[in-house]
């Protein structure tokens, strides 16, 4: 999997969060994930299937960042990760993947998206089990950290 | 989503675990998931996309059951949920979904599967964010509990 393939997810995420929640994420250096484990408190995951390849995308937030995004979108800050927060994380997952899908379509890679799944639990870790490389991008922000992972078979 | 749709996942799971790990799971009553939250320690998740609908499947294990399955498959019990265990959970997720995909294909529902994702973390919860009903089936066994969830848009 090359960087051409991860960039659509990166730019879609920055766009979604600045538009929806006035939150600027600062991307770190993309890494090929090997032993590295990214922890977080709430994650959105989605599968993607296309004629050339299949794969998965995940976005993981620190609790503080997820709650701040809620606050900036709705004007009210939940005390903890509740159903509204997991709904929002599912929606962000859909929007980021939908944006990336459009950008990848322009490059000739077509995909259909499955439905998102949200995981909550303090300090959980995500492992993508595709046959291809797993690319991780860490992000920092004024309200906490996030990271995305993208992995596709055979690209 | 009707029971006709969940049964292929149920029978595929029972078959995979009894064949691969000589482990008999005892299914409880399927439930439409509303507020109900199923916790577990390691989960495999996968997206499915077809021409009629799309959705997601997850299977969540207690740590004790995941470690026992490893022990029965490989003859050695890991101390905790390591990469071998998450690989196995990813493989079980693929096998169960592949078996269900074949059974659903016989009923006229075709799907392509995305790649699996494995989540580990004590007591995490999974929420499927499709537009359809979420069906949960709990399982008990001699070595601990598991549960599966299946959710599809518009069936």
From TrEMBL, chains A, B:
Transmembrane segments: none annotated. PANTHER family: CHEY-P PHOSPHATASE CHEX. It holds the Pfam family CheX. Residues 42-140 form the Chemotaxis phosphatase CheX-like domain. The keyword Signal does not apply. Keywords: Chemotaxis. It comes from Pseudoalteromonas rhizosphaerae. This is Chemotaxis protein CheX. InterPro entries: CheC-like_sf, CheX-like, CheX-like_dom.
